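User: Hey, quick favor. My workstation is busy. Could you predict this chain's structure for me?
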Amino acid sequence: MIKLNISNIDLNYLNFNIKETKSQGYTYYRIQKRINKDFKINVTGKSKEEVKEKYFNKLEKFLNTDILNLNINNMTFSQFVHYYLFEILLPSCSVKNKTFTSYEIIYRNHIKDSIISSIKLIDLRKEHLQKYFNMLIKKDLKLSTIRTFKNFISSVLNYAVDEDYILKNYCNSIKLPKDNSIKVHKYLTDEEIKRIFENCKDLKLLVIIKIALSTGMRINEILALTENDFNFEDCYIKVNKTLSCCKVFEDENNYKKQIIVTAPKSKTSNRIVYFNPNISKDIKTYISLQKEKYLKFGRKYTSDDIIFTNTNFEYINSRTLDFNLKTLFKNCNIDASGFHIFRHTSGSKLYEKGVNIKTISEQLGHADTSITSNIYVHLDEQNKKDAIKHLDFIFKSV
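Assistant: No problem, here it is.
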């Protein structure tokens, strides 16, 4: 490998800007530079010198990587997926960190040592893939999980087709079973909600629960909220970000597990949601106490700061709240787990009150109204059962 000599490289590579960003009381520096249509360098650091060093390290690797001389004819499928992840997706920054983390987990746990891993890319056929997916089905994995694997493998093979490495993406022809079952989502009764409010002594947890019940927001959308996201006059929240716990990769061997703020799950997740005016007081009280904590520890508070933080004023991983929530459910004698039950409860209550599906879908941030309909169709079945009971008087005298 030839060592990078700055004096001999294209001046375009030296033409970059170092951006300064301040967040949570810290200052970060970033360089974002597109080298070509397929490669983008994106590095961050705590000093300008650090980001410069990272930039030139990545530039050196790029300039000394002969991408055109890939030995495709001898490359196994596993090797190609690895190449696609760490030489194409990661440097190009074309997917979110959370998405890349999910892809890396799929590769490491379900492709790297699988029955299709050692098959050459150019020899991979439909029968190989179908056998692979059939084995996943026998492992009793969720169909939704298997579809995620299929979508990822299909995207890898689509890239191979686009680059003329293979002629056809056989993953598109794979058959998976249809899931005709109706998943019944548990939701809380009014009595259970009352017990939760009475037994929850942690104000932060209580406010999070009330926001979730009132708006149907996802837990990581709530944990990303700032004071500026609230409009207390008209009682609405601007949902424009979410927290993601993921691996942030520098390269294959260097990564850090971080909680970061990202864009919402989908375009429809970026929305306005309305909350019940009765919880305004609780939210304002919590924000006021949070401001006092900032002042007590000599930290500057701004309305752009995350309001739900840990004791070190850092982002909260939703999993760290699970223990307290499980304890709360146990004390309330409620058979439930996880924050998602509050989201389902919010949607169910709206549906029971006759709110139309489109409005519920927009409030929950679903990508399509059919998703909302499928989730709450079991309520229609229950309504049918209850309606039939009104005909009891006909048969009592028979």
